[in-house]
Amino acid sequence: MLNFDFQNKTEIIFGRDTEDRIGKEALKYGKRVLLHYGGGSIKRSGLYDRVMKKLKEENIEVFELAGVKPNPRLSLVNEGIKICKDQGVDLILAVGGGSVIDSAKAIGAGVKYEGNVWDFFEGKAVVEDTLPLGVILTLPAAGSESSSGSVITNEDGWYKKSFGGNVVRPKFAIMNPELTYTLPKYQTAAGAVDIMAHVMERYFTNEENVDFTDRLCEATLKTIINNAPKALANPEDYASRAEIMWASTIAHNGLLCTGRSTDWSSHNIEHELSGIYDMTHGAGLAVIFPAWMKYVYKHNIDRFIQFATRVWDVDYDFNNPEATALEGIRRMEEFFTRVGMPVTLAEAEITDNRYEEMAEKAVGTGTMGGFVSLNKEDIVKIYELARG
Question: Rounded to two decimals, what is the model's pTM?
Answer without folding.
Answer: 0.95
